[in-house]
Amino acid sequence: MNIILIGPPGAGKGTQAKKIAAKYKIPHISTGDMFRETSQSGSVLGKELQGYMSAGKLVPDDLVIKIVMERLGKDDAANGFLLDGFPRTIPQAEALDKALSSVKKKIERVVAIIVEDEEIVKRLASRRVCSACGAAYNTITQPPKKDNHCDACAGKVVQRADDNESTIRKRLAVYKEQTSPIIEYYSRPGIVRKVQGSGAVESIFKAICESIEK
Ligand code: AMP
Fold it and tell me: Under DSSP, is residue 191 helix (H, G, I), strand (E, B) or coil?
């Protein structure tokens, strides 16, 4: 199954994507994770990516499309994949569809996680992530058991550079303008499923699985 997971920053896409990928045995392809990894390498490309991310801006379409198409060409994506954070603009969606149709494939589900803006600002300002394994924490609802160290791998738990209020608001505005039209774009083939993203992780996951299967 070829699935897109879409939703505003902080909707819980990363957490849900890991669970969906494990259940359906498909690779979780997160452009944000790929870009953060590249930016940590300190290369010229990494620095360029970091510049966009810390300003809350989107990375230019041609660059993103090239990186994602290379990733989708790997063997593990041959029998399905879960895209998290891509496509984020209509030109990215069009490029994806074109590339898939050239190999007689298509997107089969677009799962849109819906969360109110103010809840997102609250969630992201208190979000923390493990710098080693990417596990998600929250200073209010789910702090790590040991001060700033990951429960799973003991890596350092940090705040993402783009999780501050002014960048969060910019990212939300970018989502509304450029990314949310993708939901409409995919609505015609009848493959969009909207799921409420507030509540317990497990109950949201259950709703997502039901929406994928129906
Ligand atoms: P995320 O982890 O999905 O919130 O992505 C973090 C940042 O990476 C975004 O704010 C953008 O700067 C960049 N990014 C991730 N995916 C894309 C994409 N598909 N198109 C453009 N920029 C992206």
Answer: coil
pLDDT in tens, 63-82: 999 999 999 999 999 999 99
Would the CB of 52 count as within 6 Å of ligand 1?
A: yes
Distance of alpha carbon 10 from the chain centroid: 9
Please list, in sequence order, all residues whose beta carbon lies within 8 angstroms of the beta carbon of residue 115, skipping any fewer than 6 positions away: 7, 8, 10, 11, 12, 123, 196, 197, 198
pLDDT beneath 70: ranges in the chain = none
Name the catalytic one among 71, 160, 170, 194: 160
151 token code pair: 């429960």
Question: Where are the domains positioned within the chain?
Answer: 2-115+176-213
Domain 2-115+176-213 fold: Rossmann fold (3.40.50)
